[in-house]
Amino acid sequence: MSPAITVSGVSKTYKSGHTALHSVDLEIARGEIFALLGPNGAGKTTLISIICGIVNPTTGTVLADGHDVVRDAKAARRKIGLVPQELSTDSFETVYATVRFSRGLFGRPPNPAHIEKVLRDLSLWDKRDSKIMTLSGGMKRRVLIAKALAHEPDILFLDEPTAGVDVTLRRDMWDLVNGLRAKGVTIILTTHYIEEAEEMADRVGVIDKGRLILVEDKAVLMAKLGKRRMVLTLPAPITAVPAALGEWDLTLEDGGRQLVLTFDTKADHTGIPSLLRRMGDLNIPIIDMDMTRSTLEDIFVGLVSQGAAA
Ligand SMILES: Nc1ncnc2c1ncn2[C@@H]1O[C@H](COP(=O)(O)OP(=O)(O)OP(=O)(O)O)[C@@H](O)[C@H]1O
Which residue's CA is minimally distant from atom 10 of ligand 1? Predict the structure, then answer.
């Protein structure tokens, strides 16, 4: 089966001369939930806008469900729903009319049962006759999602779905994403929130300064995330890890002054109590003990700052 999205060699230089994307390649499988992480200005919105056919790439091609988003724009767009960051117009229309109209835009026949389901799923049914301009920010955000789902897209883009939203909407959003996942909808979300990627994504991509610098299964990243370090500071440096401590995953750092144990927090045994007992038996003194953890955030910040140094 062909991928849901194929991005090949996509670059974007705006009229201002600023290059927002440098030759991005990315494949997204059907039914996958893909989180695109990156700092402000990294190029996330530009990439999404190109895939959705709103912005033209300077070079490269994008296929959505096999349709070229520039040459075969109409067919590609029918497959795609986009939840943008902001509601661009404060409409006098009602919620129901707005969402129904969105469906019509994509040439889909009317389906009141589907519109009702979408509005109910998003707790908007009671507000169906309200004018958009009278709604709270959170409710407007729900309308954006309803509009994107009105034409039953196979691929849904969520651009910063939970930036600045309250906890209830955030939870509803996660439930909604899980419901769509169960139906086989492909979901691509951009986010600043690492925990959001951890909660929802199958795969994570990190974009920095217009370059996709990492694409990885979340499980692999979480395995890295699960690593912890216990740092034992010794009163005097040693030249090698003592042979009697060979059964633990130990390394020497800080010129032999620190003995570092790396362990997996998810493992049944961290090895800490037995190591400390053995060191006591061997009369190896310790003057300080510290725990550090590598998180997805660390991995992300590390990658992005490496990019900054380059
Ligand atoms: N229409 C435009 N004309 C010129 N430059 C633009 C335009 N749109 C975006 N840019 C620039 O391109 C870069 C990438 O912007 P983009 O909005 O894609 O980043 P982002 O990762 O989505 O950031 P954020 O998280 O802040 O939304 C930024 O430096 C931005 O200023």
Answer: 20
